[in-house]
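Hi R.,

Here's the chain you asked about this morning:
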Amino acid sequence: MEEIKYNWSQPSDLAAIQALLKKCDLPYEDIFPHLANFITAKIGDRVIGVNGMEFYGQDALLRSLAVDLSFRNRGISRELNARILTRARQLGVKNLYLLTQTVENYAAKSGFHKIDRNSVPQSIRATAEFKSLCPQSAVCMLKSI
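And the predicted structure, written out as tokens:
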């Protein structure tokens, strides 16, 4: 098997990232402005995994952790998460938020805990994901880093 390479995304990765997110039933419509804070896992030119965040000063919204079904259970999501956390710390992020309908247990194992949506800062509540792309039924979680 070819080596998996992890790189910060480039504008040329946008279509492949959006296709993977769509395939994984995750919001993808609004990621372009935040593309510099998305990391990809690739085999050759194929994007097989992605993770990203929207950065708002000391707060950030974790976005779009996705791994192609045929490449799951190989530690790719763990590596993507580790790299996003490193980037968040480098940018001075203190609080990392996420909305999820499917990975609450996984996020909890990664140090996130459930919080009330109303306690989230306005900068995060104003995001497209928070306002409209992710349903009200999504669990809101926080990790202080």
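The longest helix spans residues 76-90.

Let me know if you need anything else.
M.
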